[in-house]
Amino acid sequence: MNKIITIGREFGSGGRELGRRLAEELGYEYYDKEIISEIAKHTSLSEEYIQQIVEQKPHQLYPITIGHTMNFASTYQIKQIQEIYSAQCDILKELAEKSNCVIVGRCADYILKDYKPFRIFVYADIENKILRCKSRNQANESYTDKQLKKKILQIDKNRAKYYNFYTSLKWGDKVNYDLCINTSNASIKNIVNIISKIFK
Amino acid sequence: MNKIITIGREFGSGGRELGRRLAEELGYEYYDKEIISEIAKHTSLSEEYIQQIVEQKPHQLYPITIGHTMNFASTYQIKQIQEIYSAQCDILKELAEKSNCVIVGRCADYILKDYKPFRIFVYADIENKILRCKSRNQANESYTDKQLKKKILQIDKNRAKYYNFYTSLKWGDKVNYDLCINTSNASIKNIVNIISKIFK
User: Fold this and answer.
1) Can you give the pLDDT at residue B75?
2) How many structural domains is chain A composed of?
3) Which residue of A has its CA nearest to B190?
4) A174 and B195: CB-CB below 8 Å?
5) Which CATH number fits the domain that encloses residue B42?
6) Which domain holds residue A132?
């Protein structure tokens, strides 16, 4: 069975960088935004639309039913959401079958549980996440710290809702992971140097 | 400044073994039950009594006051609890000043926060904790799994109450630690081989 590493991460914690560096260090495939492109190929939907769907809280996309009445557009939208999630499950399983890999986000830890992935969750305190957001994206420099904090918390809230909705587990709860890494006081490079040894 | 590693741990997760092996591997001092003996030396109280106090929920030891009425025995007992905690703080700081060390439990991550300790929390799922309890202590073999589960959960509940009471933080909440390690699917020896490299 291939070695699968899944990375859950708070926004601004450096989880994506950690995943990318870990894959490089180990010579594993790395999947992140590529999964959205693959979903687009598997469905008739555009990458932009899929991105929009997966970044929203799924329960907001589901219609309010009054009795058994439900309008056609909503039913169609539900079908699309289900189609996207179903394609995501198929693609993740295909990737897991193909080779050793690191997968960021997308409920991969849950969807691939039969493949016994090593499940990492990456987090940091809010001050460090604000600093990281500023340093990695010039566009974020125009935000005040207060605005950035609000943005970070909102993105994480959406990630939590998405994860909780599809898995019935609590996003970021340590019981669902093998290793939880706080990047507040550490360099991602150093962390990768050490944890890559788990897989060698 | 000396290197200080603190270990919080769920009962039966192997956290104590992890701490001991980590100290051995790094050549650091290791403190666990020794702290209770030191408290006894610093106070007029017996090790047994101190053990009993620190294993109880502290709020249970505090008296119920009706208006300003409080009985003498309770006031005396509060004084002892405060004396024990105060001695614990002094001893932990002395140990941190003395040499590099690994300290298990005793709110050391919080009490020594000015020493910037590396804070580890060790946990596991309940099935693995039951197995570990059985394998390390023959006395536990007479317990049914249900009884052992109850015992484990009760001890952890007390540890949480103790920690939350003195620190106002949530015991086991990943935000209070640098690294949270799930020992359910891993050998303690292998974990120590890898994480010891953080400190080399």
Assistant:
1) 77
2) 1
3) A198
4) no
5) 3.40.50.300
6) 4-199
